[in-house]
Amino acid sequence: MTLPFIFENENESLYEVRTNAKGPTGTLPLIAQMLEDSPSGDLFGLSQNVGMGWKPKDLLGTEVLILGTKGGIRDHNGEPIALGYHTGHWEVDILMAEAAEEIRVHKGVPFAGFVSDPCDGRSQGTLGMFDSFPYRNDAAIVYRRLIRSLPTREAVIGVATCDKGLPAMMIALSSMHDLPTIIVPGGVTLPPTIGEDAGKIQTIGARFANKEITLKEAAELGCLACATPGGGCQFLGTAATSQVIAEALGIAITHSALAPSGQKIWAEMARQSARAVLEMEKNHITTKDIITDKAIENAMVLHAAFGGSTNLLLHIPALAYAAKCKIPTVDDWARINRKTPRLVSVLPNGPDHHPTVRVFLAGGVPEVMLHLRKLGLLHEDVLTVTGQTLGENLDWWEKSERRALLRKRLLEADGVNPDQVIMDPDTAKARGLTSTITFPKGNIAPEGSVIKSTSIDRSVVGEDGIYRHTGVAKVFTSEKSAITAIKTGGIKAGDVMVVMGGGPSGTGMEETYQLTSALKYLPFGKYVSLITDARFSGVSTGACIGHIGPEALSDGPIGKLRDGDLIEIMVDCENLVGSVNFIGTGDQRLSKEEATHVLETREVHPDLKPDPDLPDDTRLWAALQAVSGGTWRGSVYDVDRIIEVLEAGKKALAKEAGSFSR
């Protein structure tokens, strides 16, 4: 590289630099009281607004801040100039623009800010995964700072789509108790006409290594998977589940979750949301009126009815904390999952693997709610961003032309009966749909663990609805070594894979979708169980038990397991109880008391340690969320608790220093 190479072919017109400009024409709409009483920041803000091209006569409308997760740069035709991280934020700016235009129509003043988000699919199996979950807290902080940094905003619209950006946005907006806020879900991408969905396509490496597909098949299928350029993945993973939760909370308008990105109905949703938030501002409806204990319970019920991602067990408690509501406990989750039937047949759970766009056309969240209201499972008196109660929204939906036409469209376009995508409880039960989540405990997981029991392959579940597996442990202290074993034949039917050190202190609580997806699509995978202190992608399926607590690096028993240990797993998919226990080694079986004593007295695995590449940023996140209650409280930052611990630590250090000085 040389200077001439960098600076070659400069046109002389570049040097014709202006040193002043006339400035905007017109006058600011000031009155004496504004000059006397307003802070200088408010007044200078008006100068900034006209400096950016806004007409002075239009300055005094309702100011609405639109925050989005936009990533990448598109030209005016939508072609890429610079790629984003993922399709989920590629078209978010279109929604933001639609909302802004609607605000302008109503004489408001729109502002926009961006905090982009990472892609869990892109970072699977890489060091990028160590930043995935911690990013959520960081982004929520930045969103809150951006909201507060525009003191004149009177309402906030959050536009987001995917696994961490949307939970971060919901957490941030939940904190804005006295502001009108609304979520615009970013929608979903379409599946290829012929090909594989974005969940299955992430297994091409493992399937090729096991000679399940050819190089040509991998290359062709990989090219097709993201059939349209925008929106979250086509399955009910964390992105889609988060959209469902936003609508279920009442903080997104009726039938807004899972709309197909880039299409007219998706764009119109942004305009409808802009009108709704302007009405909220006019009628003094704020976030604290929407997000209540009842609204959060409604969201948990919808999570169960959809069969949603287990990652929402990390996000819903966090937004409840931000909203100053009751934080759901494991007992709350168990109670709701026991009484709520799963009603939606969708990727990845099945039984029919419909993409999320079909769920939208079948009626989406409000259609599922129609069934749930008949069961008396919803709080219909909660207020929503439409300005109406949930019950009033459902009354409208049931008789709406929108509902009738979209359900008809699903039958015309795909030949699919909408009532086979979103089922009534009797049909769902007859089709074998079971409730969503079980929380196994045992001497390996004394604080508990999580399994999406509804997604265990039904062929390995007993006629009594119970999954039972007793197998020999194969222990891994990193996801990398575990996926290598799968690809090289080191895992066989009947094994129990133990992946330790994947909790917050070890990896930032990484997702292990590489492992779960490979097991799903390899022929022997349904006969393998996986237990880990890490977490799973929302699209994960199978006998996979995660979130094991305490984590290995906090002296959790999982960190003391060894190759050859006998592990006994039981998951009752009907009654939602389960256990995961160490019961001996080799041919020696132990009583429950003996086995527990062995784990208590064992040393930790000699190879167990935090990943050497764990970023300092993530180490700090892990420490802060740990003293705030850890993953079972949503990995939040409880500032009062953190300060209390810091003060106690300072006093202890001072006392220690004093004893040394003597």
Textual characterization of the structure:
α6 (132-148) crosses α7, α16 (356-362) crosses α19 (401-414) and α17 (364-374) packs across α18. The chain is built from 26 helices and 14 strands. α21 links the parallel β8 and β9 (496-499). The chain has helices at 3-7, 32-37, 40-51, 92-105, 120-123, 132-148, 165-174, 204-209, 215-224, 238-249, 264-282, 287-290, 293-306, 312-322, 330-339, 356-362, 364-374, 390-399, 401-414, 425-430, 479-487, 504-507, 513-521, 592-601, 616-627, 639-661; strands at residues 63-68, 73-74, 80-82, 109-114, 155-160, 181-185, 448-450, 466-476, 496-499, 529-532, 544-549, 565-572, 577-585, 588-589. The mean pLDDT is 95. 41% of the residues lie in helices and 11% in strands. An eight-stranded mixed β-sheet has the order 7-11-10-9-8-12-13-14. The protein has a four-stranded parallel β-sheet with strand order 4-1-5-6, with helices on both faces. It is α/β, with parallel strands linked by helices and 662 residues long. Belongs to the IlvD/Edd family.
